[in-house]
Specification:
alpha+beta; Hepatocyte Growth Factor; 5 domains; 10-stranded mixed sheet; globular; Celegans_DevNeuronal_Protein
Amino acid sequence: MTQGSKYTSFLVLKLTLFSHLFAATSGQCRGTETFEKLSRVTLEGVESAPPLFTYSGGTVTAGCLDRCREARTCSGFVVDYSREACFPLSPVYPPAGPNPTPRPADHAVNYFQKICLNGPTCGKAWMLERVVGFEIEGYDDLVLNDVATRLKCAELCLGERNLRCRSAEYHERDRVCRLSRQDRRTQPLSFRPSNPHVHYIENQCAGIPLQQNCEFEEFQEQDISHPDLQLSVESIEQCQEACEAEASMNCRSYTWVAQAGVCRLSGDDMTSAGLSAILPSPGVVYYQRTTCLDLRLSCTVDAMTVQLYTPEPFKGRLFSQDFPNTCKSQDKSRTETSLVINFRDPQCGTVDEGSGVYSNIIVVQHHPVIQRRGDKAIKLLCLFQAANQTVSDSFNFIVDSTFPGGRVATAIVNATAPSPRIRLRIVDREGNDINGARLGEELYLRLDLDDDSVYGILARNLVARSGDNSDSIVLLDDRGCPADPAIFPSLQPIPNSRSLQGKFEAFKFSEDQVVRFQVNVQFCLEECRPAQCGNIVSYGKRKRRSLKGEGGLVTLGGELTLIGGEVTLRDVEVLDNEEEEEEDHVYHEMPLQKEILVESTTVKPLKSGLLPEETEAHRIANLVCTSREVLIAMVVSAVILQICIILIAIMCVFARRRRKVPATEVQQGAPSLTLSRGYRSPYTVSYSEDSANTLKTLRTSLRD
């Protein structure tokens, strides 16, 4: 080897060592160092480490991001919002195990993982959000095979130029990456649980969806427990403006504390943090973004036509509020959904408000079966005029009803062990049994089991039905997994008890106020192992098995009676198979049901912005437009009508006086009928002449 080649080899080795040293000092990231957020997720053991950053009385997210970004040994951190602190994930304080696995948390925490991406940047504090075990079903715009890692899939989404990639799904086992123009907020009904090897990745650089960029939904006396930024402002309008203008993150909700002038911004909402993140908080108001509506109304001489435009095929319902069965749109899964309402059709209930104004209230229901919080009712107005113009006013549902406490569905199982008593209850946040609720109200479905029982319980096939059984929706499937966690989540054990409960928001069916919950409950000896539903743990049936004497199954013979909501099972026989020790000993299914009432009676105006073509919709909400000719004709008609009324009234008064004067004079019969000094009434003269003639006749008769 020559001296030149030795020098070249030494130079290459030196450059290689320098590049490795540079990579190590820069955190081994040659691209963009950012973070990936997992909401309501923690790592075992991390929260017991010394905090990375704390800030009493404020928010810690920004400070934690800065501290972890500066620390080369920090590979991530967990924010505990209730403790106002974050805890690092580092070699000095590692969690349990060499490869920590994020797990769902039941308290207000978020996990931020430091990542390195090769691709375009957007200035967001965290560029990705991830949900383990979920996917958007049916909206794959681009499928890429043989993608090595999850981060590579995320980079493909960030760098894709042929479509605006809002989300991606990475299948670890198949090494498949699926890119989509949709995300969990634009297609909430398609965001469903999958297996634990599927990762839903949301691109934060895509920004807020257009259909969620015009309206905020209000929650009085409630607050989300995930604040990321805190500001001091003078009004709620300034708080909303701060949320809309925030560039470091996608602000999806904000909280206004009027008494302190405090505005708290959050990158989470009910979609990402879940219903359990919304907690009672007196004196504050919580707002989160909601879906906007693109509605257009046209009027003819005999009908009004309303058109709903959506970016994706509309799978919900569009119908008249008072006539949901007979007056509804027949369009299915279209981006343009129309409803024609005839003014004279009694099956649509259009109201004639007079002066050529016709109105109707329609409902935009996003779910095909049930009404939920956020569905809108819109009042439509049509006025006959030379050039057809319409003004629309929109309303929110506020459903309010109070009902006395009712019976609780109960069931009793008689076996060789002490008889467990299981009750299906619908309760409020205070634990009180309810039979009626407001639409969107926080409720809990509870399966109460005696704490001293030797049994555990499973729940599956939870179905909500309308009062007449014409509509139904599956809440928990035959595995016990939630069909749509946004409507009803998984059942979780209540601490220090054998009972289960699930938190949900009150919903109703379009044609019925009654919501009947039906569930099948099974019993296990000791405890029941929960079902694994993606990254969700649910205490439903882990594995469906037939009731034919399989191993670990308990068959119930004898008599089964249902009286007054109580089920009694007799003559229980246990069939145990020792070869299947890992399976639960499951008892026969026990059906339970409970009804509640949800009414939709009150409507209030929405805020401006629901109609994109009307930028001042709030200003003209109660206005009716008309032409100049029609207005002049109406004014002239009103003036003529007033003159006619006055003339008729004057004529009636004079006619009444003319009839009353003669009758009054005759009834008096006084000797002197003089009305006033110097004037004698003609009736008085006539009366005197008649009297004189009468006296003269009498004198003549007496002479004769």
